UniProtKB/TrEMBL annotation:
Domain (BLOC-1-related complex subunit 6 C-terminal helix) ranges: 54-148
Entry protein name: BLOC-1-related complex subunit 6 C-terminal helix domain-containing protein
Annotated source species: Eucalyptus grandis
Record-linked PANTHER family: BLOC-1-RELATED COMPLEX SUBUNIT 6 C-TERMINAL HELIX DOMAIN-CONTAINING PROTEIN, OS07G0483400 PROTEIN
A Pfam family: BORCS6
């Protein structure tokens, strides 16, 4: 039974209970009398067997209506609880998926960050050797300049 059918079933039972309540009120319990049907003492008369049976029928009918109402109520509650549980399960699964993807992204970013740091450290080590190379290049440049000057002097001789 889907949610709409359950709702219609619940409304039908509510109407049935209202009608039974009206019947119960309009057909009030019969007047209690003794077997002779007389009440001369002014006290409450003794009920006869027919009156008791009628009263029990009313109580039984009302009890059945209440039981059906409770059955409908519990069915509705069971359905609502099932829907809420299903939604909660879906949301938990979605959260779990999102957390898993986030974890993968964080691990990937951490791995790439470590590679970058290692590359920077290697470059730093390589740059330390560049200072001595720069010094050697300066010395070489001075020597080339001196050689160039000497060649220019030799070429310009009269």
């Amino acid at each position: 039974m889907d949610h709409e059918d359950q709702k219609c079933h619940s409304q039908d039972q509510d109407k049935l209970i209202e009608e039974q309540d009206k019947d119960s009120l309009s057909a009030s319990l019969p007047m209690l009398t003794d077997r002779s049907g007389q009440d001369n003492t002014g006290e409450r008369p003794m009920p006869n067997q027919t009156d008791i049976v009628k009263a029990l029928e009313v109580v039984e009918r009302d009890s059945v209506a209440i039981a059906e109402s409770f059955t409908s109520l519990f069915a509705s509650l069971r359905l609502a609880l099932s829907e809420v549980t299903s939604c909660s399960t879906d949301h938990m699964q979605c959260f779990n998926d999102a957390a898993g993807r986030l974890q993968e992204s964080v691990l990937d970013a951490a791995t790439k960050g470590n590679r970058y740091i290692n590359s920077c450290l290697r470059l730093n080590e390589e740059m330390k050797g560049m200072e001595s190379l720069a010094t050697q290049l300066k010395i070489l440049r001075r020597n080339v300049d001196a050689l160039d000057s000497a060649v220019n002097k030799l070429v310009r001789l009269p």
